[in-house]
Amino acid sequence: MRYAYYPGCSLTESAREYDDSTRAVLGLLGAELNEIPDWTCCGASAVESVSRLLTYSLPARNMALAEREFGDADLLA
Question: Which residues pair with 75 in a beta bridge?
């Protein structure tokens, strides 16, 4: 199983233990996690109040990066 992995801001900062456990468990299950290079914060906590367009654009950018880099791999966010 191969996955394009988007950890997002929370899992790389305030909830690092969830990222660690996700990687550990999926590794034991034989899943290959490939972090999306140069991913962008999705803006979930603040962007909607600034721009509705960014609410959709930022996640779409990450999905496009995943498709470009990993092709047919499933996306895990």
Answer: 4
Rounded CA separation 35/76 (Å): 9
Q: Is residue 34 helix, strand or coil? A: strand
Q: Give 29: exposed, middle or buried? Use CB within 10 Å, 0-12, 13-18, 19+.
A: exposed
DSSP state of 43: -
List, for residues 51-62, the tens digit of each pLDDT value.
889 999 999 999
For the whole model, what pTM was predicted? 0.83
Q: d(Cα 28, Cα 23) in Å, to the nearest integer?
A: 9
Residue written as tokens 């034989």?
30
Quote the strand ranges of 1-77, DSSP E.
2-5, 32-35, 74-76
Measured CA to CA, the distance from residue 43 to residue 22 in angstroms comes to: 22
Per-domain residue ranges for the chain?
2-76
